[in-house]
TrEMBL record:
PANTHER family: PROTEIN TRANSLOCASE SUBUNIT SECE (PTHR33910:SF1). HAMAP family: SecE. Belongs to the SecE/SEC61-gamma family. Essential subunit of the Sec protein translocation channel SecYEG. Clamps together the 2 halves of SecY. May contact the channel plug during translocation. Its main location: membrane. The gene is secE. This is Protein translocase subunit SecE. It is found in: Membrane.
């Protein structure tokens, strides 16, 4: 059984559509901040952001690369829903263990630093 990877070749038209979609998304974000800075109504600024993002998604939907990416994003959301998330109690316990470990490690590293300082400066160099 052969396990070869297949590489798809995208045309320059596909690359242009993806690049244009990225530019549209960036334009929507820049337009949002520009209109917010001009003291325009929040609805106008939000409209510019949404319009840029919707246009970018529509452009991506027309390209093969974009459809593959959007399909990947949908599958990622679907897989995230399958994850068994810890309960609040479990999350608090794990967080407490991490904090305790960090405190113990900090004390250990501080102690090691002070011991090396004592050995080097007092005994080896005799500076103190």
């Amino acid at each position: 059984m052969s396990n070869q990877s297949v590489q798809t070749v995208s045309t320059s038209n596909e690359k242009f559509k993806v690049a244009l979609a990225v530019v549209a998304a960036i334009a929507g974000v820049v337009g949002f901040f520009y209109l917010t800075g001009q003291n325009k109504p929040a609805l106008v600024a939000a409209g510019a952001l949404v319009a840029g993002l919707v246009f970018a998604v529509l452009l991506l939907w027309t390209s093969t690369t974009g459809r593959d990416f959007l399909s990947f994003a949908k599958e990622s959301v679907r897989e995230t829903k399958k994850v068994v998330w810890p309960t609040r109690r479990e999350a608090m316990q794990i967080t407490g263990i991490v904090f305790a470990f960090v405190v113990v490690m900090a004390i250990f590293l501080w102690g090691t630093d002070k011991l090396l300082e004592l050995l080097l400066y007092d005994f080896v160099l005799g500076w103190k």
